[in-house]
């Protein structure tokens, strides 16, 4: 069903597409747990990782996913390329495609650029994050993580907390979470809340949602995209929005804490919470999100190229 399809955003994914990706991720999670973590599924296929912005999780996850499927993967970094000599993205891509590449994974700082690229080239494109617009594979791996934890989506209460104005993860996740029947509450100060979210179910303090939520989803403060000061001070942010150990202890049994990473320790989550152990520490499933990310990306590559 996803054959040759590009993944540019979450809006264009149907319920059938999502179910297909999540159910295939189960099989690939099993591959990742084997001693020999490799299947020949995409032998002979060539994938390019084209990252114009820094990344740890997404780039590595796609690389591991491609290699576990036996595809050849080329990591392209703009800093060491002819982009530095003025070559355009489209011309760079056309150069790559002349070498008979089968799929490109792209991260770029310009919102909407991946959709534009998708119109220009004739191989599938996967959006690995474009500016403040979308990060669809993050949303899919988050959905998969939630299903592994709760076995369902319908009726789960999820509070998404933090910097919405600069967040591509928020835009992808809200769309997908609502599509799956989850009850989404937006928690953000007005200065970090853009128009498109302000008409939703909005709260301004983490304390308003901490006791009732099944999922506390913390967004990263996107300092690199803030061209002006969006919040008076870190102390003020900590007071109303950060997850600290007092708030952690108020969370209901069975509830979980998610974050797309990388975490700004001491800003959206305190060190104490990040390093918590025992029952409360077990609520933090940030590393499981990363593990499941590989399985979800293997599923996507397989469904598009297999
Ligand atoms: N979640 C995420 O996109 O992390 P990276 O920036 O490390 O890829």
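Sequence proposed for the structure above (306 residues):
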């Amino acid at each position: 069903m996803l054959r040759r399809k590009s993944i540019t955003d979450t809006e264009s994914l149907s319920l059938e597409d999502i179910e297909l990706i999540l159910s295939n991720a189960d099989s690939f999670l099993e591959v990742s747990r084997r001693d020999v973590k490799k299947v020949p599924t995409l032998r002979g296929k060539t994938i390019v990782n084209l990252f114009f912005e820094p990344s740890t999780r997404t780039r590595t996850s796609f690389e591991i996913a491609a290699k576990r499927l036996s595809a050849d993967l080329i990591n392209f970094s703009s800093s060491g390329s002819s982009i530095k000599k003025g070559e355009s993205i489209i011309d760079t891509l056309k150069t790559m495609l002349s070498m008979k590449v089968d799929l490109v994974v792209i991260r770029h700082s310009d919102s909407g650029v991946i959709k534009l690229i998708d119109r220009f080239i004739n191989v599938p494109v996967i959006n690995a994050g474009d500016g403040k617009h979308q990060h669809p594979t993050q949303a899919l791996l988050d959905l998969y993580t939630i299903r592994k934890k709760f076995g369902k989506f319908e009726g789960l209460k999820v509070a998404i907390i933090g910097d919405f104005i600069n967040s591509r993860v928020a835009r992808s996740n809200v769309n997908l979470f609502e599509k799956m029947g989850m009850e989404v509450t937006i928690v953000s100060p007005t200065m970090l809340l853009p128009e498109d979210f302000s008409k939703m179910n909005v709260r301004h303090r983490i304390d308003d949602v901490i006791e009732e939520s099944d999922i506390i989803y913390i967004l990263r403060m996107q300092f690199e995209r803030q061209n002006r000061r969006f919040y008076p001070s870190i102390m003020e942010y900590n007071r109303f929005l950060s997850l600290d150990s007092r708030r952690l202890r108020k969370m209901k049994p069975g509830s979980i804490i998610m974050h797309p990473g990388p975490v700004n320790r001491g800003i959206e989550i305190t060190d104490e919470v990040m390093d918590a152990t025992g029952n409360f520490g077990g609520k933090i499933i940030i590393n499981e999100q990363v593990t499941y990310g590989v399985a979800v990306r293997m599923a996507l590559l397989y469904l598009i190229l297999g």
